[in-house]
Amino acid sequence: MGTPVKSAVHSSLILVDYDHCSYCGACVAVCPPDCIILHDATLLIDPEACTLCRRCIPACPTGALTLGEVA
User: Fold this and answer.
1) CA proximity to 31, closest of 6, 14, 18
2) DSSP assignment letter at 69
3) How does the average pLDDT of the chain come out, rounded?
4) Residue 40 banded pLDDT, cuts 50, 70, 90
5) Which of 5, 7, 8, 37 has the smallest CB count inside 10 Å?
6) 8, pLDDT greater than 70
7) Which residues does 71 contact at the CB level (< 8 Å), separation at least 6?
8) Number of domains observed in the structure of the chain
9) Is the pLDDT score of 61 beyond 90?
10) What is the DSSP letter of 53?
11) Which domain, by its residues, includes 65?
């Protein structure tokens, strides 16, 4: 299952399915606020910087990123 990363501004969040993430960096390349960090085969999303522009979701070739709602 995906790991939620909550945005401080919105009631939505980006879910990262680490089982499907290939750590290719495609999401990092399209992130306008540069809040996605690829470090030592770990994908991190800074929830304070994320604006939920959702550009990372279609950029992911494995479909590892999805938009969810805060429960």
Assistant:
1) 14
2) E
3) 85
4) confident
5) 8
6) no
7) none
8) 1
9) yes
10) -
11) 3-69
